[in-house]
Amino acid sequence: MRLELTQADVAERIDVATEVYGRLERGGMLPSVQTLLKLCHELNVSSDELLGLAQLSPVNRVSEAPSPPAERPEIRRLLRSMRQLDPAHIKLLGLVAKALLRR
Predict the structure, then answer these.
(1) N or C: which end of the chain has fewer CB within 10 A?
(2) Digit-coded pLDDT (tens) for 57-78
(3) In angstroms, rounded to a whole number, what is the distance separating the alpha carbons of residues 83 and 69?
(4) Do both 50 and 80 map to the same domain?
């Protein structure tokens, strides 16, 4: 099952910077136990699988399902960008969105 998550999506879900998640993915650093557990939960895999100690198989899956992606990747990227805006710009963006919906 493909989750269709970007590095930024996973980083946000496990509460680390995108750059840090990229290093984790490339093997440039090891996660803390807490981060490893969050990663297992979000990717729906066991820690053994992530650490290469077990074969990837449905039998070894973590029983709890990961959080479902709320939106398409484009929407998630927009939301991440919007979180960095000040209130005035958010209001302006809302007006632009309403105008686009009226077209």
Answers:
(1) C
(2) 554 444 555 555 557 788 888 8
(3) 18
(4) no
